[in-house]
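User: Hi! I'm working on a homework problem where we have to compare a predicted structure to a textbook description. Could you give me the structure for the chain below?
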Amino acid sequence: MKKLIIASFLGAASLAAQAADIVDTAVAAGNFKTLATALQAAGLVETLKGKGPFTVFAPTDEAFAKIPKADLDALLKDKAKLTAVLTYHVVPGKVMAKNVKAGKVKTVQGSELTVSTTGGVMVDNAKVIKTDIVADNGVIHVIDSVVLPK
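Assistant: Happy to help. Predicted structure tokens:
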């Protein structure tokens, strides 16, 4: 029994030691199922598995649940609009929480996100609820709402 526990622990440790990209890291977290589905629908999985580095402001499943179901379903079927929304959540480079500064930040989509740092970090109207989830090709910061390009 003791050997089995040690073997299980060593197996889990070796899995944890393997670096994972942004997509695999988000999927493993378990609360980004809608984001993963959206990335697949938009054809962005391979992009976010790419070299990067990327900083992703990742909406949780609860954040996507704030969007009325009919609107979310329509968005998932409109690849161009979905791609614009998802790439609006991605900033080139790896920006850790300690390096976040208030101001405008250009996204992969082309528009700018507004970052504020007064009373916690906000990205447009979304509150950053968890920071610095490191992936081998960037970093994920968890947000509580889906942000939309202007």
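For your comparison, note the following. The beta strands are 54-59, 90-92, 103-106, 112-116, 122-123, 126-135, 138-143. Residues 6 and 27 are 27 Å apart (CA to CA). Good luck with the assignment!
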